Every structure is written in C-alpha cells, then in structure tokens.
Amino acid sequence: MRVRVQEADFDLTTEISLLRQARPDVGAVVAFIGLVRDVNAGASVSELTLEHYPAMTQKALASIAEQAQQRWEVDEVLVIHRVGRLLPMDQIVLVAVAGAHRGPAFHACEFIMDYLKTQAPFWKKEQTSDGAHWVEARSSDDAAAARWEQS
Q1: DSSP letter at 26?
Q2: Which is nearest to 151 in space by CA: 105, 107, 118, 121?
Q3: Helices (H), 6-123
Q4: Residue 116 to residues 7, 18, 106: CA-CA distances in angstroms?
Q5: What angle do CA 118, 36, 134 make, to 5 degrees?
Q6: How confident is the model at residue 145 (pLDDT cuts 50, 70, 90)?
Q7: How far from 98 is each of 29, 78, 116, 132, CA to CA, in Å?
Q8: Is 144 exposed, middle or buried (0-12, 13-18, 19+ CB in 10 A)?
Q9: Tens digit of each residue's pLDDT (9 = 90 or more) over 17-69
C-alpha cells in the first residue's frame, strides 16, 4: 500500500507500472482519476484550492486504503491526492488497486473513492464566476459511502 499527498502532478502510466512491478500474480488493475471540472453547481470554476493538515490527512488516507485491503482480496493499493492550487482539467486524485481478479479490485477502488469524498480531511475552495467559496459536502457522497456499511 502506498499513499501520497502532494502538490505535484502524477503520471498514470508510471504509477501503474510501479504498482504492477514484480507482481505476476496480478490479473487486474482498476484505476480512477479525479479531475478539476470547469463548472460546479452552474457556476464557472477558474481554480480549486485544496487545503489539509498533513499528518492527519496521511493517516486518514492510509486508514481508508487499509480498510479496502481488509474487505477485499487485493494485492496492492495506491492513493495519490494532490493539494494546493489546481486548474480545470488538472488531475486531483489517483486511486489504483491491483489484485488477482477484477471484481474485488473494482469494489476496493470504488470504496476508497467514496470514503475519500466523505472521510478524508480536505477543504476545497473554488474560485468561480460568483466569487470564492468553500465547497460543501454533498448528500449524494454521504449516501454512496453509507452503502458500504450495509455490505
């Protein structure tokens, strides 16, 4: 398991190659990349700033990744989350899961993303056509995370 919080961008091909390195038992790799959109709630977004408390964030992301590895039979988990100033089309997050089979890898990847959206200590501030404002949590994200508690 690898978890990184960083300002720098990441390269998907490089990260997946490192995830698979020396793992002939891996039969599936599932990856999700989150991007900055140029619109949110009908307002144009010119930039997104992500703030965090480094020690708390690293610990929370590691805990989420560990939970996924405990729930599903997967071999490797990678979470990279960017912080700082980001522009539309910039990559924000990469979650990649490698395992013997696709089913557990898909579930673990989706679980990690749902929990990152609701439990990771990030604060997002958007600069929009309506001015700057902090992004509020969405009930749809809470509902997505809650379904894992039932399964």
Answers
A1: -
A2: 107
A3: 12-20, 54-71, 102-119
A4: 17, 22, 15
A5: 55
A6: confident
A7: 4, 9, 18, 38
A8: middle
A9: 999 998 999 999 999 999 999 998 888 999 999 999 988 999 999 999 999 99
Ramachandran region of residue 84, left (φ > 0), alpha (ψ -120 to 50) or beta? left
Tokens 């989420």: give the residue: 64
pTM: 0.94
Q: Residue 114 and residue 137: Cα distance in Å, rounded?
A: 12
Partners of 3 in the β-ladder = 79
Q: Fill in the amino acid letter for 2.
A: R
pLDDT of 151 over the 70 cut: no
What is the H or E stretch that residue 43 is in? strand 43-52
Q: Which run of H or of E encompasses 133? A: strand 131-134
